[in-house]
């Protein structure tokens, strides 16, 4: 990873995969352990939430993955193994991961609600955004729009080093989707992230290539060891 003259980190596509791929449990989309590693690499869920969610899957494994069914204690043990393996590889956060989280914080301050790696589809995400928006309004923030990447988008970030962000508006706020899209892109660029030109009609912004790495400690910037 090198720094370009314009302050944007230039990342070779072939090297935009995180160090977690070097471990015993690399992320993937086809195995149970790989699916756990994907969520651990994203860093959104706490350990107990991972155990709870994957225990339900492990009880009916044949419907999702090639591995045999697993008991709750076996799932919990595997989750702990994956977390330890991840943190053995990823001891500090990548600059791009910190930049992305800083950009999300800046969006909140600007009245743009964000949702990252929550919900399986857009409808789930919009429900999450609605809850977050009401909380911000209760705290006196003038909410104007939103930005999101659902769980599948976050998986793509881990697997291929690029993140698709959707965006939109709250009609009563008076902003247009184009205005929110431009502001989201500007806030990402201010943090030095590579943002590709996008068609505003699609209301999607592509960020990358980038390396997203954080130790499994949660997504609070104060808790993340920096490079």
Mean of residue pLDDT? 86
Question: What about the largest sheet?
Answer: 4 strands, mixed
Number of extended strands = 6
Total count of domains: 2
Amount of beta strand? 5-15%
Strand order of the largest sheet: 3-4-5-6
Proportion in helices: 40-55%
Note poorly predicted spans: 1-13
Structural class from helices and strands?
Answer: alpha+beta
- Order of H and E elements: EEHHHHEHEHEHE
Radius of gyration using CA atoms only: 18 Å
How far is the first residue's CA from the last residue's CA?
Answer: 13 Å
What do you see in this structure?
The chain is of the alpha+beta class and about 230 residues long. The protein folds into two domains: about 20-90, no CATH class; about 95-205, no CATH class. Helices cover about 45% and strands about 10% of the residues. It is built from seven helices and six strands, in the order ββααααβαβαβαβ. The strands form two sheets. The chain has a four-stranded mixed sheet, sandwiched between helices. Helix 1 crosses helix 3 (about 70-90) and helix 2 (about 45-60) crosses helix 3. It is globular and about 50 Å long. Residues about 1-15 have low confidence and may be disordered.
């Amino acid at each position: 990873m090198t720094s370009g003259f314009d302050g944007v980190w230039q990342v070779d596509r072939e090297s935009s995969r995180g160090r977690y791929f070097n471990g015993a449990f690399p992320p993937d989309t086809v195995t149970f352990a790989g699916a756990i590693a994907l969520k651990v690499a994203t860093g959104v869920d706490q350990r107990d939430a991972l155990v709870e969610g994957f225990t339900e899957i492990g009880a009916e494994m044949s419907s999702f993955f090639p591995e045999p069914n697993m008991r709750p204690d076996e799932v919990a043990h595997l989750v702990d193994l994956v977390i330890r393996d991840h943190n053995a590889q990823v001891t500090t956060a990548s600059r791009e991961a910190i930049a992305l989280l800083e950009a999300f914080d800046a969006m909140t301050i600007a009245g743009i609600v964000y949702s990252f790696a929550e919900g399986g589809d857009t409808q789930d995400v919009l429900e999450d955004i609605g809850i977050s928006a009401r909380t911000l309004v209760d705290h006196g923030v003038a909410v104007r729009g939103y930005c999101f990447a659902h769980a599948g988008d976050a998986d793509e970030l881990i697997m291929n080093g690029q993140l698709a962000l959707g965006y939109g508006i709250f009609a009563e706020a008076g902003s247009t989707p184009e205005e929110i899209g431009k502001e989201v892109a500007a806030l990402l660029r201010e943090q030095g992230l590579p943002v590709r030109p996008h068609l505003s009609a699609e209301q999607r912004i592509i960020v990358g290539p980038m390396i997203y790495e954080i130790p499994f400690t949660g997504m609070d910037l104060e808790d993340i060891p920096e490079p």
